[in-house]
């Protein structure tokens, strides 16, 4: 229950300091209401105005703080930057409404100026009742000004102009500053930053996909700073979403080596698209056109081809020349717009999936003006009728500072000018180029798959598919896993459409064969909505045959599998029988993928090989995922921007967690994991983003969090890991766990849980050391005993061996009195990790594909190679 609309800290912010001057402000309530509520699309966007001021002030570090509980009466939002601050004259200029000294200034401190309208600070009206500035200018004095929006509301009616609104300027001592700032959210951290001079961290430079070239940043003298605090929050301010703000700042503001932005202590990095790229163009000579066409109003429809050379089309359009240049960086020049830079990428998979409200649009046009992405809410930039297949895989990051003159006040939208119309034509022309390349790329899809089959096999080959799909739409799928029925809202209408299309031309029954993530474990599905055969690009067998030369073969293989199953159903094969066949086939595919993929030794070696491969960090992430899978976890890889690399669930038997209606199969525990490759031997706090790792743990309801790196720097890293309860493990120690699995069998998941309760890398290493000792002493079945039992049984039992029979031989003939079935299976699984070609398991059966001597020799070779790789990685 709120006891007051003003918090203790808000009152103190108003009272501190000695008055030295006064600012006269004229502003109307109507203007404030219209400006704040209509001009900005979200509370995050309004708050961003305060943050972007640091760029124009020449700041190298901007620290943003958002209260963890925005519904608390004491909640605040604050922004601290180390740019040039304001003296009394500067504060008066700040509150000169609708005037900005930046309006005629295009560059400040070597950076392009973002602000120009002089009203951005009024966006905060929608967020809070009070906005307070503390400024330390070059004269060394600290000054305070507080805008009380409530005073404007009280003194002015809906139409009334509030004249001579007095804003007092106060001088504040350092003692007074500490007293009030310590009361706001994260106040002690803010004060510590000020005491330390608000140093900018050493961040690695991000690749600039907008390609604008380096600016000549001229860092102003240090010692100045500005702290803006929003207090007495309004409902809109309390609805600010920190996740959306983080995503917005990671995509919309200019930062990197020149300006660092941190949010609640976590330094942000540019959002990256890590999906495989099919083809890439740099805006410049890479683009294969020399003009764009501006369609005159009402002269042509959006669907007309821009490349139509008919006289009628020539008369209806205006040709705009485009020239491309390579120096000083690749760029295009269009009269009226000027220099345009950036990159265009066509991805192998769709990048348009996911909740855009939380992670932002990935595909589309990303238009950057003066260092800010200005169209986050409109990735199509007003264009319509864009091809879905290519559009979902298309990303164009384009910087055009010349569009600044067409920006409206909120800097999110543009005036409909000739300049914008020409720019849209340029975007459309570029997308058409990419779409053409996509449609003509034989590796992008096996187009007209149905037509190819009809020509090769005859009309009858697709009749079973037509029949089974029609039955599925009319009733339900006999085997639901075979079909993707999403996007079907009216099944009756869809069935009528299907019958009509396939009656006219049987080849319409089968469209493209595509690689996509299906979101489940199936190898291949038929998607009814567009007649596509969808190959699951996350299936292990597909992953192991993902080279370009193999893709067409896998497409054909998947299509044949699907159509064979459809034929079996149409011929009357019982659905349960066919399910068993499909399950068996899938096991074979997965087993073959495991054989050809990586042994435990290979994974351990790759951990050492990829830990310092900083430029290809995704490699280490993939290896860590494999390592956790081999240790027995049920792993769900994620690896998207703003997400952990994945999470690993432990399902020991029996479970210790009670099921619920929402989670009927809960794991005993969950671990989120992140992998951090580094150029050197030890990772630093800033590189690890430990606060982000902790946020991942909380978001995925995990009990533990794991970070894998080549090493960890002593001091702050270890302290922070302890505070957040994050387990740091060096890549070498994770590799040793794989070695133990091979030597002694699977490590119990209940035992591995001990590891995640350690928060110091040296303690983790000690635990791994002691683990081997305990495995040796607790192991009732040694590798020698196991192999000897195989040697004695091999001539007697030529097929798969039961675990109970092997255990019996160990007890009766080899003196291992306590060996049980589960010990045999555990050791066999461990051997399957390190020599998967020779040893495998199938439930309680052990499969041996070589003599005992051959298995022993292979194990020794693998372990010896692993030891050498570990020594080389030291």
From TrEMBL:
Keywords: ATP-binding, Nucleotide-binding. It holds the Pfam family HATPase_c_3. GO terms for molecular function: ATP binding. InterPro entries: HATPase_C_sf. This is ATP-binding protein. It comes from Parerythrobacter jejuensis.
